[in-house]
Amino acid sequence: MKNLFCSLALLALLGGCATHQSPTGRGQTLLFSTAEMNQLGASSFEEMKKQQKISKDSKINAYVACVANRVTAALPNNNEHWEVVVFDSPQVNAFALPGGHIGVYTGLLKVAENQDQLAVVLGHEVAHVLAQHSNEQVSRAQLTGTGLQLANVALGAGGVANRDLYMAALGLGAQVGYILPFGREQETEADVMGLELMARAGFDPRAGTKLWQNMAKVGGEQGPELLSTHPSHSTRISELSKLEQKVLPLYEAAKAAGVKNCQITK
Which positions are catalytic? Predict the structure, then answer.
């Protein structure tokens, strides 16, 4: 009983000392430093590039990079280079990792029908990084004792211990067969932040509802892998419709200032 009390006291102390506010004002518990999360993201991304087939299609790579670069350029205080890799896979999926890494599967391009719809997805995924949702997930796993043994991990230059479990905590569960899905609050936050981000980048936010309607049609009732942690319900689409109208002036201002059009060249 004494040991249990000490453990609970320690967890409470850790949680209290690491309380932060997300960009939207939501309370978060973050136990890991930015440097640790960036290294974790980089290590996981390098591992994925070894495991997954990378697309050699120069036109598709240029198109995805164009959209991704515009989205990340709209980030506040953006002072890092974002690595963008297109994976040659039928998966309808994309992700962003701490440290400036974006992965897009070619299967997504069959559902995200144009630059604006692709920007909706990338804005959402980059927003997860901006709001430190991965740090929140890993921290929550440590505090709740899920068995990841995060307190003992060695974040060295040579790699990351328990690599697959950490990749899952970063939102890459589809690749490793284990998943720690983002919660509803985090998904809503990424919707809000992501739509504003892509609108600031000069992409039409009205593509949001159409994109998620397309997503809901793929793969039957469960939808594509992307939706395994991104629940798409009628209420969510309704909320996106309201958000689109709020950020529309940002899009119109960006378009008036002039932005590069992204498209796959023939």
Answer: 125
Amino acid at 90: P
Beta-bridged to residue 20, according to DSSP, are 28
Position 73 pLDDT exceeds 90: yes
What are residue 35's phi and psi, to 5 degrees? -60, -40
Strand, coil or helix: what is 170?
helix
Report residue 31's pLDDT band, with 50, 70 and 90 as the boundaries. Answer: confident
Helix (DSSP H) and strand (DSSP E) numbers for the chain: 10, 7
Which residue is listed with tokens 């949702």? 133
- 23 near 131, Cβ under 8 Å? yes
Neighbour count for residue 232 (Cβ, 10 Å): 19
How far from the centroid of its chain's Cα atoms is residue 215's Cα? 16
136-158 burial, b at 16+ Cβ within 10 Å, e below that, comes to bbbbbbbbeeeebebeebebeee
CA distance 180 to 186: 12
Instruction: Please give the residue that has the higher pLDDT: either 15 or 261.
Output: 261
